[in-house]
Automatic annotation (TrEMBL):
<keyword id="KW-0436">Ligase</keyword>
<dbReference type="Pfam" id="PF03099">
    <property type="entry name" value="BPL_LplA_LipB"/>
</dbReference>
<protein>
    <submittedName>
        <fullName>BPL1 ligase</fullName>
    </submittedName>
</protein>
<dbReference type="GO" id="GO:0004077">
    <property type="term" value="F:biotin--[biotin carboxyl-carrier protein] ligase activity"/>
</dbReference>
<dbReference type="Pfam" id="PF02237">
    <property type="entry name" value="BPL_C"/>
</dbReference>
<feature type="domain" description="BPL/LPL catalytic">
    <location>
        <begin position="1"/>
        <end position="172"/>
    </location>
</feature>
<dbReference type="GO" id="GO:0005737">
    <property type="term" value="C:cytoplasm"/>
</dbReference>
<dbReference type="InterPro" id="IPR004408">
    <property type="entry name" value="Biotin_CoA_COase_ligase"/>
</dbReference>
<dbReference type="InterPro" id="IPR004143">
    <property type="entry name" value="BPL_LPL_catalytic"/>
</dbReference>
<dbReference type="InterPro" id="IPR003142">
    <property type="entry name" value="BPL_C"/>
</dbReference>
<dbReference type="InterPro" id="IPR045864">
    <property type="entry name" value="aa-tRNA-synth_II/BPL/LPL"/>
</dbReference>
<comment type="similarity">
    <text>Belongs to the biotin--protein ligase family.</text>
</comment>
Length: 244
């Protein structure tokens, strides 16, 4: 629907489609995305000028969206310590334990404008197939004696889009350095040691992400190098970066 409409609208007009449930959800690399009732599911259309800070670093958009999802919860007064985090390049996690959402970005360049379709899905009120944000809130209330209210999918989609708009403005003004300190605050990888290629592969430490959004790892004796998300996958459970 949005793919047909997005080229017909004035550039300053935003467009979003929201689903209560998906029957043919898609993930990265052709993976199927399960979308039961209780998820926040949407596709957002935005335009980014090619000759802008973000237009020259388009891979960064998935990081900004992932950060916006996390901040949509953790910027609510009282909800700052709900342990929702970003996993490079495009997943939302509960701590470093379990996936709770994901982001998929497609871009089309028409003349000097990128048309970006951002799909994001977050488990909000569905305990299956993994865990959801309201489960984390319930757990937090029990442990801390608080009475935080459960959140709704509509609220989180609205907050995510609002936060994303602000993050894009900051990025366009200041570049990667305008958002990276906030991104690192919420990501799961700080100081993590990983193995490259397989369980017996060389040891490396995750340093951060570079100016184009690629993961930087420091391999012993070799210095820092960037890892491209389309050429590698990150196995959180085994702390492995594996070539696809």
């Amino acid at each position: 629907l949005i793919g047909r409409l997005m080229f017909e609208l004035p550039e300053e007009m935003g467009l979003i489609a929201i689903a209560v449930r998906q029957t043919q959800g898609k993930g990265r690399g052709g993976n199927v995305w399960l979308s039961p009732m209780g998820c926040a599911l949407s596709t957002l259309h935005i335009t980014i000028p090619l000759h802008s800070n973000l237009g020259q670093r388009i891979p960064f958009i998935q990081h900004l969206v992932s950060l916006a999802v996390v901040k949509s919860v953790r910027s609510i007064p009282g909800y700052e310590d709900i342990d929702l985090r970003v996993k490079w390049p495009n997943d939302i996690y509960y701590s470093d334990l379990m996936k709770i959402g994901g982001v998929l970005v497609n871009s089309t360049l028409i003349e000097t404008t990128f048309h970006i379709l951002i799909g994001f899905g977050i488990n909000v009120n569905n305990s299956n197939p993994t865990i959801c944000i309201n489960d984390l809130i319930t757990k937090f209330n029990k442990e801390e004696g608080t009475k935080l209210k459960p959140l709704t999918a509509d609220c989180l989609i609205a907050r995510t889009v609002t936060v994303l708009e602000r993050l894009i403005d900051i990025f366009q003004e200041k570049g990667p350095n305008g958002v990276l300190s906030c991104y690192y605050k919420y990501w799961v990888h700080s100081g993590k040691q990983v193995r490259l290629h397989n369980e017996e592969g060389p040891i490396a430490w995750i340093v951060g992400i570079d100016d184009y959004g690629f993961l930087q790892v420091h391999e012993e004796g070799k210095g820092v190098e960037s890892v491209h998300p389309d050429g590698n996958s990150f196995d959180m459970l085994r702390n492995l970066i594996v070539p696809k």
